[in-house]
Amino acid sequence: MAKSPDDATATMIANLKEKTGKSLEQWVKIAAASKLPKHGEIVAMLKKDHGLTHGYANLVAHSTLKSAASDAEPDDLVAAQYGGAKAGLKPIYDALVAAIVKFGKDVEFAPKKAYVSVRRAKQFAILQPSTANRLDVGINLKGSAPTDRLEASGSFNAMVSHRVRLSDPKEVDKQLTGWLKQAYDAAG
């Protein structure tokens, strides 16, 4: 059975000193001393200057900035994503969630600051309100040829292989749910 995100983080923290020679607290001091204000800058510095892997650098950056999305309530993160100008996209999100939960009891929705990660044993999709009138569905379908609708993800998000752009809840159709189900099956 897959570990929860909290369990995985606890394991990383427990292994950090053995793998890197320093504890989380020591790495946070190093990162804080850099006075870098942005998460990505801290990650890049830790990787380049100290040889940390991306996962450990990400952990240290979140701890340094105290910005881990897991510290926020999931409902608050989703509400923030679909607030203001993007409020009209919430029915699309709701339709996607309603379709995806039918795949199995092991589906997990993990809201982040800008999107919702959809996981089984591993992430198979992301739901992201990208503009005021478009919600992007990132799908892990490695090996599937892009089509007019199922685009290669390109620069959208490196954690998925394809993207589908939605502007209406009616677009959450059999074709899209088929691709999502295929990705869900592969993530098991």
Defining traits:
single chain; 188 residues; alpha+beta; six-stranded antiparallel β-sheet; 7 helices
Distance between the termini: 10 Å
Largest beta-sheet details? 6 strands, antiparallel
The total of helices stands at 7
Which strand order do you get reading across the main beta sheet?
A: 1-2-3-4-6-5
The fraction of residues assigned to DSSP E strands is 15-25%
Which stretches of 5+ consecutive residues score pLDDT under 50? none
What is the general shape? Answer: elongated
Report helical residue fraction. 40-55%
Question: How do the strands and helices of this protein lay out in sequence?
Answer:
Elements: H1 5-20, H2 24-33, H3 39-50, H4 54-65, H5 74-81, H6 90-100, E1 108-111, E2 116-119, E3 123-131, E4 134-139, E5 151-152, E6 162-166, H7 174-186
Antiparallel strand pairs: 1-2, 2-3, 3-4, 4-6, 5-6
Helix pairs in contact: 2-4, 3-4
